[in-house]
Amino acid sequence: MDKKEEILRILPMRLKEEAGRTASFETLQEIRLRPGRPMLFLEAGRERVSNCLVSEKEIGECLQYAGNYSLYAYEEELRGGYLTIRGGHRIGLAGQVRAEQGQVRVLKQVSSLNIRVAHEIKGCAASLLSPLFGDGKLKSVLLISPPGGGKTTCLRDLIRLMAEGESPVGPVNVGVVDERSELGACYQGIPQNDLGLRSDVLDGCPKAAGIYMLLRSMAPDVIAVDEISLVSDAEAVEYAAGCGCSFLATLHGESEEAVKKRPAIKKLWEQKIFERYVLLGKKPAGRVLGIYNKEFERLFDRGPERGERAFGQYKNSGSAFDFAGGGRHRE
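Request: output the structure for the sequence above.
Response:
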């Protein structure tokens, strides 16, 4: 099943026909559905407003299709405000929330859906590999960007490249904790996205528990996780780093402040667990703003003409950032 089919199968008939007729699935990033308002498409960073008004009933139908008519099986995901479907596409949810003691218990009366289309861009992180390695191993790396900034796309390709043996040190065994099924897009436990020859995936597993499981059972050289958000996640990262394991991880944020002040990351920053920080921009997605060391000192200066580029501009060259032309290593 290709990307277009994966998205169209969860849409009610009228919306399916509209999307199939008007959306460009090669560049499609998001479909937003709100009752009584037009269907919106985000394509290559540009929003397009459809003439098709969405009904409340159609939003309910879309949610049922996405959950295969068994939404109770997705209770934990729904409590977090999202639902991941086959292919790694994530559906963001908004509506009426019932909370107890400051914790979300259930999301009721869903009123808005944001269908975020997963993208596999092979080779987009190829030129990031060299500056992320040193002393014969991967430096623990934290990719930082605002939502939609390409950090998951970059992380996925870094996993694939290392697991395929394309790193400066050759083949690497990568353990992946894919809590939200966005990296591997597993179907019945088998990744649908290409994560390389030497990757082992724990799908739908909480990050902290998964990190401990991989350490005990799979002897990974590198552990990769998407979106560190809880203190328990950070504690597991700290433990694994003490065992000599390198990390690939991501964080929502736009600057150094996200690292130094976020409770889940602050201790990791203070202990210098991450030795490389990569800042990615949102407009366009995948724009590399800078690479920094564990002190958050800039390691690369870039020429103004060739420095900032997006993943989508490198489909042929297989590069996310042109270090040869735009960067000068200062370390």
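Residues 146 and 253 are 5 Å apart (CA to CA).
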